[in-house]
């Protein structure tokens, strides 16, 4: 029987944006002696719009008068809020609630113990973090001072239960942990509750199974959080214990004796020594809870870590050859080396469940010694796309085992992706599966993992069999320099730029076109009003039209590579001003200074709108002299005086010339004046021997030439050729007995 092929392409969407937790640390003196306040330290760089309040989380006394709420937080320095305690009711469970305008609340709880508790958790920690789906746990209290009365338990200040035992199963009925097991567990002697001498411990339940994140599916796989960091069940990020930072909690604060997400708060001002953070309890957002600073343990955070242990509450094991290590950082002392299988500055890395570069398995690596777990997942292929486009992901799974009951699933993790996506099997033989997925809006932070799951979505072997690949993205093309300004009119600006070039510019080819943008200032959004195809041109140009006169515009250009979302970043911008409504010189005229001369007097008028209404002020004029026939520009004369309105010009020869004038303002050049030609007769065409008297030329709406010729002059042919020069405008000739001839031409004006 041949395997059935079913092709299913699933479009996946983001399951919603993650509202990151605010970075806040709550600090209090672990021992009640001398404790007058607790503080909340905000590590967010942007502290605008933050609101900080405080509250008592549950009532832990039978007398309401001994449970006053805490005072309002007061801002004592940038990002530091102090909550003063009322000595009478300074014990119990308190929280700092921080929110940003429009954002979710980040709440951090601490437990303030008395120094003379009768009951204490036997593990001497304030909080325990467990995972949904974990086996039931046992809470156990120590009788520090024995009191002959019934032992009772409460959860979250509710009704009492389980009298007589110092242990409590969570959940009480056994089975596995669920979210409803989270809360404040209290163990107290029946008649002593109001003295606040009970044992308190807070159970934090991650909303996902161990090493997974992204409820409700929880298909995100946690990255390694070293040195006691805890994987945030909603974001997948590591929350690092005090004394470590970095995305995997691998960096120890330097200098020591500091706390905060960027190690920015000194434990004792001016005393950045190893022991400065002793005596303090530090609480971080859930699911982290509360711990002592690195190097200390105990409910009073006074006890230094024993040999072979380090970190917050001494919960980490040293992996140096000799066994011991620095109790704050875990680093080996005296040039000692890491134990085999461990690496990193403090010997906490191992081969890693994430198959970092040390792993050379075709499938997953064993997470301790780096050996391969078996050839389960053969391949993941991720199509290369433009950032933001839709990628196709192909998971190919082969296994010596029968795969009938499992499926290859895709998980996508990244900054804005909280969950993963399930597709259907598209090709199946008993030992291989191929599945295709499409994931939209791919960013450089996306990581795709194909792994094995049973039909009910539980992961095979705790999700150890997987293969992952980062998003494969093209680099969008960038035009690195600003476009050039070419010309402007009152409503247009023309720009030009050099084509994107494979060998000298950033980005992946092919570039298929360009999008020019303009705006009037930096507060405005860029506006595109068209695009230009690439077409292999070395330089390209574009004219922005419908612009406002006398306005400064900024313009830039973005190159576009093929495929959806191919538009690259915008180039740097250049600026230019459009001209005033009327910026052309008016009434431009050119006439010979004398009969037979080659000297021309050019005159013009400045329009009234200049300079009074214009931001640009007049500097001078440019006179363009061009050949009438070929239109070639023969000369450009600068007249840098705004007050002149005429100029005497010696023409380069005897020919027909065209004269145009433009204004020069401090914002640039104005447009050329209307066409104004001066038709100058080519005297060489008339043979001198035929001319009897002097040539006379009169300017006006018509050019009138008068001259006398002798009888032999070949009149018609020679003189009518002037008519064709004048491009078939009205003309007339007259001749009288003495051979005098009059020709009339209109001013040579070409239709624009
Ligand atoms: C808190 O106090 C610091 C200086 O002590 C000040 O710079 C900061 O603006 C204050 N923050 C607020 C929200 O008042
Ligand atoms: C970690 O803390 C150090 C100071 O000890 C600081 O220079 C560094 O930027 C921090 N790293 C991160 C990722 O916050
Ligand atoms: C790696 O660890 C696994 C599980 O502990 C074990 O079965 C395997 O033999 C180890 N491999 C080596 C090379 O030590
Ligand atoms: C994630 O979303 C935020 C808010 O929408 C956005 O500012 C940020 O650029 C996004 N990050 C990525 C990598 O897409
Ligand atoms: C790209 O630039 C290089 C060096 O500047 C030049 O030699 C090459 O001809 C250019 N290629 C194109 C297609 O313009
Ligand atoms: C721009 O100038 C032309 C003449 O050059 C004129 O006809 C037009 O009305 C002007 N437009 C504006 C918006 O001032
Ligand atoms: C003919 O030429 C003479 C000499 O210039 C002039 O006086 C006379 O008026 C002309 N006659 C006509 C009809 O143009």
TrEMBL record:
Which Pfam families does this entry report, sorted A to Z? fn3
Q: Cite the SMART domains for this sequence.
A: EGF, FN3
EGF-like domain ranges (all copies): 219-250
Signal peptide stretch: 1-20
Top-level division of the source organism's lineage = Eukaryota
Alphabetical list of InterPro entries matching this protein: EGF, FN3_dom, FN3_sf, Ig-like_fold, LE_dom
Keywords for this protein: Disulfide bond, EGF-like domain, Kinase, Signal, Transferase
Stored SUPFAM superfamilies: Fibronectin type III
Please give the Gene Ontology molecular function terms for this protein: kinase activity
Q: Where does the Fibronectin type-III domain lie?
A: 479-581, 584-685
Disulfide cysteine pairs (residue numbers) = 240-249
Q: What is this protein called?
A: Putative tyrosine-protein kinase
Q: Which organism is it from?
A: Stichopus japonicus
């Amino acid at each position: 029987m041949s395997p059935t092929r079913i092709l299913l392409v699933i479009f996946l969407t983001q399951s919603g944006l993650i509202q990151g937790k605010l970075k806040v640390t709550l600090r209090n003196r672990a021992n009640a002696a001398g404790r007058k306040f607790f503080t909340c330290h905000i590590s967010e760089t942007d502290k605008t719009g933050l609101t900080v309040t405080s509250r008592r989380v549950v009532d832990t006394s039978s007398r309401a008068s001994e449970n006053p709420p805490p005072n309002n937080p007061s801002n004592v320095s940038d990002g530091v809020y102090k909550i003063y305690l009322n000595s009478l009711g300074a014990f119990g469970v308190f929280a700092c609630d921080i929110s940003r305008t429009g954002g979710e609340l980040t709440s951090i709880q601490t437990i303030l113990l008395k120094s003379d508790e009768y009951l204490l958790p036997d593990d001497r920690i304030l909080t325990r973090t467990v995972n949904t789906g974990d086996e039931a746990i046992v809470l156990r209290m120590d009788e520090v001072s024995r009191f002959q009365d019934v032992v009772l338990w409460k959860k979250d200040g509710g009704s009492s239960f389980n009298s007589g035992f110092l242990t409590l199963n969570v959940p009480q009925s056994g089975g596995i942990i669920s979210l409803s097991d989270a809360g404040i567990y209290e163990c107290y002697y029946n008649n002593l509750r109001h003295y606040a001498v009970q044992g308190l411990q807070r159970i934090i339940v991650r909303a996902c199974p161990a090493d997974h994140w992204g409820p409700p599916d929880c298909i995100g796989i946690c990255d390694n959080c070293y040195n006691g960091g805890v994987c945030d069940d909603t974001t997948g990020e590591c929350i690092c214990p005090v004394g470590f930072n970095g995305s995997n909690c691998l960096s120890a604060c330097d200098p020591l004796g500091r706390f905060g997400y960027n190690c920015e708060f000194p434990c004792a001002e001016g005393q950045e020594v190893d022991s400065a953070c002793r005596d303090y309890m530090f609480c971080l957002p859930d699911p982290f809870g509360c711990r002592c600073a690195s190097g200390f343990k105990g409910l009073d955070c006074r006890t230094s870590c024993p040999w072979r242990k380090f970190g917050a509450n001494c919960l980490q094991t040293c992996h140096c050859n000799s066994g011991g290590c620095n109790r704050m950082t875990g680093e080996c002392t005296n040039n000692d080396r890491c134990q085999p299988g461990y690496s990193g500055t403090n010997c906490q890395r191992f081969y890693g469940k994430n198959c970092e570069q040390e792993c050379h398995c075709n499938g997953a690596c064993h997470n301790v010694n780096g050996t391969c777990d078996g050839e389960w997942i053969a391949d993941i292929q991720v199509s290369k796309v433009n950032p933001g486009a839709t990628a196709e992901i192909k998971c190919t799974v082969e296994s010596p085992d029968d795969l009938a009951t499992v499926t290859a699933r895709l998980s996508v993790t990244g900054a804005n992706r909280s969950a993963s996506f399930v597709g259907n099997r598209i090709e199946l033989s008993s030992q291989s599966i191929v599945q295709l997925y499409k994931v939209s809006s791919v960013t450089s932070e996306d990581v795709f993992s194909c792994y094995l799951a049973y039909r009910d979505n539980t992961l095979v072997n705790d999700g150890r069999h997987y293969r992952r690949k980062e998003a494969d993205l093209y680099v969008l093309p960038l035009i690195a320099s600003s476009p050039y300004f070419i010309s402007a009119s009152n409503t247009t600006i023309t720009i030009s730029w050099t084509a994107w070039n494979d060998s000298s510019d950033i980005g992946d080819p092919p570039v298929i076109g360009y999008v020019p943008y303009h705006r009037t200032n930096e507060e405005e959004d860029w506006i595109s009003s068209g695009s230009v195809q690439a077409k292999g041109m070395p330089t390209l140009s574009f004219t922005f039209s419908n612009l406002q006169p006398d306005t400064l515009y900024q313009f830039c250009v973005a190159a576009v590579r093929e495929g959806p979302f191919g538009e690259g970043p915008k180039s740097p911008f250049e600026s230019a001003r459009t001209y005033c409504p009327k910026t052309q010189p008016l009434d431009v005229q050119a006439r010979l200074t004398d009969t037979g001369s080659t000297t021309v007097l050019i005159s013009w008028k400045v329009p009234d709108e200049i300079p009074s209404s214009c931001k640009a002020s007049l500097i001078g004029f440019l006179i363009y002299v061009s050949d009438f026939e070929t239109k070639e520009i023969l000369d450009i004369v600068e007249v840098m005086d705004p007050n002149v309105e005429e100029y005497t010009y010696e023409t380069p020869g005897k020919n027909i010339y065209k004269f145009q004038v433009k204004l020069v303002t401090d914002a640039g050049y104005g447009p050329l004046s209307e066409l104004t030609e001066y038709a100058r007769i080519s005297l060489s065409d008339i043979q001198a021997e035929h001319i009897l008297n002097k040539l006379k030329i009169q300017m006006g709406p018509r050019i009138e030439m008068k001259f006398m010729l002798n009888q032999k002059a070949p009149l018609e042919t020679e003189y009518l050729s002037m008519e064709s020069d004048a491009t078939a405008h009205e003309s007339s000739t007259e001749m009288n007995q003495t051979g005098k001839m009059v020709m009339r031409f209109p001013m040579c004006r070409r239709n624009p």
